[in-house]
Description:
Elements: H1 6-37, H2 42-45, H3 53-56, H4 59-71, H5 95-128, H6 134-155, H7 163-169, H8 174-183, H9 187-196, H10 200-226
Helix pairs in contact: 1-4, 1-5, 1-6, 5-6, 5-7, 5-10, 6-10
Amino acid sequence: MPEINFLEFGRKFALFYLPFLFSLCVHEYAHGRVAQWKGDNTAHLMGRLTLNPMAHIDWLGTVMLPFLALMMPAMGFFFGWAKPVPVNSRNLQNPKKDMFWIALAGPLSNVILAILGALVFMVVVVLAHQSTRFNDLEHLFYMFVGLNLILAMFNMIPLHPLDGGKVMERFLPHGANQILQQLEPYSIWLLLAFFLLGGGSIIFRPVYYATNVMMAISKHMGYVLLG
């Protein structure tokens, strides 16, 4: 078993895992809150309408796999998920339309977090541009923005149980939706094949460019504010 560098583990924990955990909690909270707005109070009744990580933890997807990735850099990727927020469609007035907005709320919350992260970084540029820790802060915000954009794009892949499957359900004919539902038991294998065959670049390349653009604009605007 490879020796664990605890100093490096701590750095990655702060840089990757804490933003990842926070972003997952906001993602799931957004699903539950919009479901409540649409008439379904299930998430609240089950204690899921909160940002408390303990309410959203899936021990495999939120703890074991991410920690394994932090301890074993040779894995080459950082991946995980939270426990899905329960939604009872029978409580919704217009299930097909309402489920669209409930599903979209999660990825949209991550896009909003990415934008907020870039805006906060602009303030950091103004206040801490001469700090010896400025490069570390820039790296932290870069990872936060990029991570949230990845979460948004990944969850919009049009497969159940991902949010993208429920978003697409509103626009697809009944027959196509049935095919998506029948594929759900095999989704994990389809996603695995997608990434093994290089499909990850479809997600990561646009995210890489978008993150660079957002951070560059924030940094430039920060220096503009400095005069």
